[in-house]
## 1
Amino acid sequence: MALSKSEKRNRIHLRIRKTISGSAERPRLCVFRSNKEIYAQLIDDLSGKTITSASSRDKDIAAAKTNKSETAKLVGKAIAEKATKSGVEAVVFDRGGYLYHGRIKQLAEGAREGGLKF
């Protein structure tokens, strides 16, 4: 029986997670994309804590009436701003099993414009 789309994405995500992990100095920038929203978290895998997060459901981002791709770029800038406030400059990018294309790519570019290095 063939794998469903979500099962295939989860397998890819587990394959990625075998090689990358976040630390306090260089946390993991984890991305989750649904049909309507996009979420980003900075995670310290050694202590198992989320440092900060941003999503398209945040009030200032949701108030901006933009398309999904532009919203993803705003989320990237927001996570970069929150990261610099918490003292993080460099991250490890975890695309979450999604292709580096479209909204995932826009979020990454927005985070780079905001000052994160990866």
Note: The chain has one domain: 9-114.
## 2
Amino acid sequence: MSQVRSILIVDDDAHLRLSLLEQLSIHSEFQAFEASDVKSGLAVIKEHPIDLIIMDIGLPDGDGRDVIKQLRAAGFQKPVILLTGQDSEHDVVRGLDSGANDYVSKPFRFSILLARIRAHMRQHEFSDDASFQIASYTFHPGSKLLVAKSGAKLKLTEKETAILQYLNRAKGGVVSRDELLREVWGYNANVTTHTLETHIYRLRQKIEVDPTNAKILVTDVGGYRLSF
């Protein structure tokens, strides 16, 4: 069960935007938004938590590279992929220097863009910059930390971090014990559900107000889920 990730497409080519929206909609892991210019793109970013931006360089009301610089300066840390018809070394370097993670030259195959999208999302998820909201905590998997609203920091073990990461991807859906064991411990025949339950118990001791009546890391039919 995968997390639904939000993608913003900023391009003044209506045909291209529609094509990308249609192709992304085939994949249930994505929710796509569109904008035809800088102004409307920034409005979408303010209204929705965007996980990745696909941005054209040449927009009616600005240069995509300048927009990326502004976003980075404002604290936006999610991946950005530039779309460009200019693929000289100078243009590529300028685009990457602006804060973009990657660039794709037009015309391109959707399969190539899709692979880049997934690769950058995976990289970001395991980077020190990645953060996710879990109930009243901010989860930083790269530093194995949960930060409470008060600013208090809860240090997590590697396995606790991996459990929360996988449950977080399910976005409230139930993940079975067998699936968690497989994803967190791999195919280790010596690991049993008791091992998982022990880690769940310890996690609840850290994050729940009343660990005996869990409100965040919930036991549900068939497995566990996070209540956001």
Note: The helical segments are 14-25, 38-47, 64-73, 89-97, 110-125, 158-169, 177-185, 193-207.
## 3
Amino acid sequence: MSNTTPDFQADEFLLDHYVGKTPLVRLQRLASHTQATVLAKLEGNNPAGSVKDRPAYNMIMQAEKRGQIKPGDTLIEATSGNTGIALAMVAAMRGYKMKLIMPASSSQERKDAMRAYGAELIESESMEHARDLALQMEKDGIGLVLNQFGNPDNLEAHYLTTGPEIWEQTGGKITHFVSSMGTTGTIMGISKYLKEQNPNVQIVGLQPSEGSNIPGIRRWPKEYLPTIFDASRVDEIMDIPQIEAEKTARQLARLEGISAGVSSGGAVWASLRIAEQHPDAVIVCIVCDRGDRYLSTGLFSVEDTE
């Protein structure tokens, strides 16, 4: 029996090779009543299944490069789900302990995914409470808070990757960019890049309408507004009704074969409204994750009557 090493080629699994470079697909049936081009950026194709893979990887790697952290350290983050899953994945690969704080109302799939990557999960009563608790734990010396809500490395990830991908994939023809807003890192980074290429590109941010509860996006109280948010980089803010976001998420799966969550449904709903008003538009929206993270919520069990 030979003891020689097998001769084969394999990539070392470096995340910077695999995060991003996601597909941009044209919606066919949902947008068929308009003349505009509506394109969906499928961020669920990232390794941990969401757009948050991009900032999670960048925040940890940049902190390493600055000497703020080293493998074996404990990282802390407040999250509504996708960022936590992505951070847990990167932490597992880089050798960090990960403590994640999230609202108890988050879907079971999200909680299970975080634990699957080895993260410790702490449930809280709200996202605001989760953010406060994370900062208190850091003050108590338990670990370092990456602070996606105020960390420039969050938006930098989108300025360096997502924005250039969208510009290249549309051949520079994009006229409108649509994104739900949570930490606002996605819309801030992409807006910065696209406006540098063409100041006339319209940037549309989405927040839940009053009384709506859409996972991953918020109407932040003023004192909790992410410090990376710059209102001057958003041309229009649209309110998204929860019922329309949920209905469109189901239509996206049933009519386009794209399984995604509620905030993605909201982004598509807003894009279709823009398409109806601007027949010559080329609209890109972020489909931020996959629908399998919402199965236990019953999102896809509803039969819409209209």
Note: The longest strand covers residues 97-103.
## 4
Amino acid sequence: MLADLMAGAAEDADARRAVIPLAAVEAEALDQPAALDAREALRRGPNVKIIAEVKRASPSRGDLADIPDPALLASAYEEGGASAISVLTEGRKFKGSLDDLRAVRQRVSIPVLRKDFISQPYQVFEARAARADLVLLIVAGLGQTELAELYALVGELGMTALVETHSAEELDRALEIGADVIGVNARNLSTFELDPSLFGTLAPRIPDGVIKVAESAVLQPADVARYRADGADVVLVGEALVTGDPISTLTQFLAV
């Protein structure tokens, strides 16, 4: 599944590049205001912090929610206390777009994450051109040289990389490149199976000072509480918010 998602996202990026060349996107990226300080926004606090996600669909669940105005939802997330907004920009399986990201960025004043299947510099420049503050890099989908080069580019453009892992070996690879915002995804992106205990297993291996983000397998406050007890600074939540009452659910999660 991950290989298909990475390949599809790369094909779509190639199609966009055929219309808007790399040089043009790079120039647009460099012309944007400075990215917001996502590390400061996500740094550990007395309560867990939430990255709230704009998510219409997923490969495992299909359609989740009709979100005609992603900026309106993101604004509600911000008012509800989210520390950052995640925007799915993958179009084939998640039904997102860079237009969603642009709309959200114009409406909110907190950091915005481009969540996609990034494998090439063009996609990183696109993220900054759309004024993303964070970019997701998935260790399992990248070779170590690719990962290091993309991580460096994200930093050069003033953004923050959320480096996603799903095993001890992937975590070691993330630490090797100096990642200081590391996600542990309970969902195996190759099989899409969930292991809610994975964060608790890997968190002790993450050094102090690295922002720890727990991803997936969040349905209720008890799930957030478990992640927090296991050391999470931040929990990224998508499906639980968009499939229920987003603000009531967010409020309950933030109380942890």
Note: The longest helix spans residues 2-19.
